[in-house]
Amino acid sequence: MSDPQRAAAFYRAVFDWKVDADRADPSFEDGTGHVIGHFVTGQAVAGEDGVRPYVFVERIDEKLDAAVANGGEVVTPPYPEGDLKVAVFRDPEGNAVGVWQRAEWPGDRGLI
């Protein structure tokens, strides 16, 4: 990661995470406090290989739009996985991150 402040701003904008950016390695936590961590330099990005986190969201399409609006790109558009809707985006630092929501697809009991 080359710019932890940029990454922190991205995740705050996309997921509304609480970010402490008043430090060299900004810390973050999600709305529940169950996801916590730091944005650090000197580490390889989490690209196509290695561990890929998947973050639960209420509205996957809105999060993908927010990712793109904040400098990210959609790598894999939403696709069905059982009763889930799953997608992958790349953040401005190059990390691949998945998002998922519970959803019904067209033809599944008439709801989406």
Written description of the protein model:
This protein is of the alpha+beta class. The protein has helices at 4-15, 60-69, and strands spanning 18-20, 27-29, 36-38, 54-56, 73-81, 84-90, 96-102. The strands form two sheets. It has a four-stranded mixed β-sheet, covered by helices on one side. A three-stranded antiparallel β-sheet has the order 1-2-3, covered by helices on one side. Strand 6 and strand 7 form a beta hairpin. Helix 1 (4-15) runs antiparallel to helix 2 (60-69). The longest helix is centred in the N-terminal third of the chain and has 12 residues, at 4-15. The radius of gyration is 15 Å and the shape is globular.
Characteristic terms for this protein:
112 residues; alpha+beta; four-stranded mixed beta sheet; three-stranded antiparallel beta sheet
How would you summarize what this structure contains?
By secondary structure, the protein is of the alpha+beta class. The chain is built from 2 helices and 7 strands.
